[in-house]
Specification:
Layout lengths: L1 H23 L1 E2 L1 H18 L14 E4 L5 H10 L40 H14 L6 E6 L6 H12 L5 E7 L2 E2 L2 E2 H4 L5 H7 L3 E6 L3 H9 L7 E6 L7 H4 L7 E2 L5 H13 L5
Parallel strand pairs: 2-3, 3-4, 4-8, 7-8
Antiparallel strand pairs: 1-9, 5-6
Helix pairs in contact: 1-2, 1-3, 1-10, 2-3, 2-8, 4-5
Length: 276
């Protein structure tokens, strides 16, 4: 039942993403579709929060380092009941609480203003350390991209987290192999990624980030004595074949007549079991 709930939520979230993307005609749709299973696993199965009180002191903290993935997080926040689904239609519009890049000052449930890549894990380390000093059982889950592994500050934070034994900190890295300037391997080769995290002292797991069962098992295996990272290999545009094969997929411009095709492909894939 856990997996079924997560998969159903991820399916609905992907539809939310398409609806928001259509309102602008473009956006970071591919990343949000690819990371939907990761975000659904966190919000449906793992995170402790109160939808009617996003600032509840006892909540787990979810930090979105990659601010341009905000469209995906908004879909998760709507699924979690923290924001109203109808508000998603305002995505990216003037005066909206849902800007194209995540802003903590605007959006309920958005813990940090992400987008300056490499800052998220540093904030997460400080937050996890502070929660421990307060005696709080809350966890900090930090969502990173593989592009953020290019940043030296990420690795400084990783070493600091292990040094302080932050067992209340979990990193999730979306490894979709694509950055703004091209394939990740061509911009800066970071593999073998698991070895680098392990060398910093983290518990490391690598899974298919579009496999809900694997994601749930990874969270179940997280230990309490040191920071953990779940490396998630994902596919840009997951669930929509039309977008999975786009050559320029970092920031997608999608023609007006293609949005309904995307929805039909997503629905067909779910009904046929491709997303199960």
């Amino acid at each position: 039942m856990r997996a079924q709930r997560v998969r159903a939520a991820a399916y609905r979230m992907r539809h939310h993403v398409l609806d928001m993307g259509e309102a602008q005609g473009q956006g970071y749709v591919g990343q949000a579709l690819g990371a939907a299973d990761m975000l659904a696993t966190v919000y449906v199965d793992q995170l402790r929060f109160r939808p009617d009180n996003p600032g509840w002191e006892g909540r787990d903290r979810f930090l979105l380092s990659t601010g341009h993935y905000a469209i995906g997080l908004y879909a998760a926040l709507a699924e979690a009941g923290i924001i109203d689904t109808a508000e998603l239609q305002s995505y990216g519009s003037d005066g909206s609480r849902l800007p194209m890049s995540g802003m903590a000052s605007y959006t309920p449930g958005m813990e940090i203003s992400g987008g300056s890549l490499g800052h998220g894990l540093t904030i997460a380390v400080g937050m996890a350390l502070g929660l421990r000093y307060q005696g709080s059982p809350a966890r900090v889950i930090n969502f990173l991209s593989d592009g953020e592994l290019d940043e030296g500050s990420t690795w400084e934070a990783a070493m600091g987290a292990a040094h302080h034994g932050l067992g209340n900190l979990i990193g999730m890295v979306d490894i979709n192999a694509l950055q703004a300037d091209g394939p990740t391997a061509g911009v800066l080769r970071t593999e073998p990624v698991p070895d680098k995290w392990a060398a910093c002292g983290w518990q490391v797991q690598r899974v298919d980030g579009n496999d809900v069962d694997a994601l749930l098992a990874a969270f179940d295996a997280v230990g309490p004595d040191r920071p953990s990272v779940i490396l998630c290999d994902t596919r840009i545009g997951r669930g929509v074949p039309l977008l999975e094969t786009r050559e320029k997929a970092h920031f997608m411009r999608i023609d007006a007549d293609e949005w309904q095709v995307c929805r039909e492909q997503l629905t067909a894939g779910y009904q046929e079991g491709a997303l199960l």
